[in-house]
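Re-run requested by the PI after the first attempt was lost when the workstation crashed. Everything re-entered from the original request form. Ligand of interest: alpha-D-galactopyranose.
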Amino acid sequence: MMRVRAPGRVNLIGEHTDYNDGFVLPVAINREIHLYVQPRSDHCCLLYSETLDEQIEFQLDALPELPPDMLPGGWARYVVGVAAMLMHHTGRRLTGIEGVISSTLPTGAGLSSSAALEAAFAVLWNTLDNLHLDGWALAKLCQQAEHQYAGVYCGIMDQAAALLAQQGHALFLDTRTLQTRHVPLPREWLIVVADTGKPRTLSGSEYNRRRLECQQAVDEFRTVCGEAIVALRDVSLDNAALYLSLLPESARRRARHVISENARVLAFLDALTDADIHRVRHLMLASHASLRDDYEVSCPELDAMVSACMNAPGCIGVRLTGAGFGGACVALVERTHIEPFLQQAEAAYRAQTPYTPQFLVCESVEGATVSLQAD
Ligand code: GLA
């Protein structure tokens, strides 16, 4: 029996920067997807999701080429997508499997359950079929699976976090060079995921639209500043003000968010290293305001959650996390104040919205792993 675990992620700062060649700082969290599978002697995959009470079956030698609408369960497309990408990349036929999937990772909260699912199957087949692919190769193939089989043109942050993160650390990632740095998290700070209970809506279509708008902003910059601008990453905060004024209104706001968010990630790294509460608070709140006003991916519930957390005892900083349009906020909270924080943040949020919030106090964990278990 093979056992796989793959974590969800929460992003501390650096939102909507990863498809602009920018910087991100996610943490893999101890809310995970678990697989318990046996290899088969044929190419059939038979998988049962305990969480959803759904079974899927497909043949690795006859994979559907398009998003597999014919398969029950939206999650099938991620599994089929990863299998397709691994086989295409390696030219190998993968081994059939049967088994069970269970999860402690909420879906729809913006904690990247889809990337966790992709990562779980990627490390599983990498081990089972001795593919010898490293974490980056797997992350890129999982990202391709998401593009081609789920139609979401995501960046690389979620898959990288699910595969490369280290326990006790945030993962600083330069999405242009793919350089990483494991940044220690202060022990006296806790990471709290504050789920608004408001399901994410329009996240796929609006996400793809934002991506397109960023590309349009790059095209505008190129006509003004020349070919050196390949991505919004190439515009620095220093010269942004001048150039931004030349862009049409909506492109200007999208670009301003991305350019300023990249600068905030770099400043946040220093603030985190110094455990500087004041700066961390300022940077997280500025990130939220920029996502709300310039990038327009917040909603009343996320804004209510930010103010509920911010006014609760022990809150260091808080902002929306993930793609937005509903889902969760991430808060950093002083360990010594966690109980009153949770009580007061929940009460304040409930007083402002009809949704039932969920607060998850998280530990940081390492990326996906596979182990062998006696049957
Ligand atoms: C989703 C995507 C990521 C990233 C975030 C926003 O989680 O999958 O690649 O773009 O949104 O920061």
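Saved to the shared folder this time. Residues 2-183+365-372 form a domain with the Ribosomal Protein S5; domain 2 fold (CATH 3.30.230.10).
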